[in-house]
């Protein structure tokens, strides 16, 4: 419908216009057909496959909204264990979890958009308390980057803002490093 297509047109205005929007829509339709069972299960359970395993290593999840509108996703990166996660799940399982779990956030935003007739996007709050650069894992950053690139097509206009709080001094270096893994629109 118009709301579905509007997200693609807006997301691709600077990335190739309507032709790129068309490619992204076709990619999304194909991906959704190929993953229909997985997405239905995610919606039914309210979580993606490997949720319990993922959350043993990552401190992240939805956390309310801004006045009943923009949903918040909080990530407490200083309390995450990306190395443990990557030692437990495969690269593909992590990419799949990160991608499919966005389905729930996208559904929330889409429902609010349809209710309010205003484009609702998710706000991510990244709490860097206790974050140490040495605790990172390049395998996780690669999986995160791959999932973000997929999400760029699959979930257009999902990400509104990312707010980093309690950031250590080296945060500029981290953002620079993430820039090599994540799409420019995510950065």
Offer a quick outline of the entry.
The protein has 187 residues and is α/β, with parallel strands linked by helices. It has helices at residues 2-12, 17-34, 36-45, 51-57, 82-88, 91-116, 138-154, 171-178, and strands at 60-65, 71-76, 122-127, 159-165.
Q: Count of DSSP E strands?
A: 4
Report the sheet with the most strands, covering strand number, pairing sense and barrel closure. Answer: 4 strands, mixed
Number of helices: 8
Q: Mean pLDDT, rounded to whole units?
A: 89
Determine the strand fraction and express it as a percent band: 5-15%
Helix share of residues?
55-70%
The SS-based structural class is alpha/beta
Head-to-tail CA distance between termini: 29 Å
| Spans of at least 5 consecutive residues with low confidence | none
Strand order, main sheet: write it out.
1-2-3-4
Sketch the topology as an H/E string, one letter per element.
Answer: HHHHEEHHEHEH
> What gyration radius follows from the Cα positions, in whole Å?
16 Å
Q: Write down the overall geometry.
A: globular
Can you walk me through this structure?
This protein is of the alpha/beta class and 187 residues long. The relative contact order is 0.15. Helix 3 crosses helix 6 (91-116), helix 4 packs antiparallel against helix 5 (82-88) and helix 6 packs parallel to helix 7. The protein is globular. It starts with a helix and ends in a 9-residue tail after the last helix. The protein contains eight helices and four strands, in the order H-H-H-H-E-E-H-H-E-H-E-H. The model has no long low-confidence stretch (mean pLDDT 89). It has helices at 2-12, 17-34, 36-45, 51-57, 82-88, 91-116, 138-154, 171-178; strands at 60-65, 71-76, 122-127, 159-165.
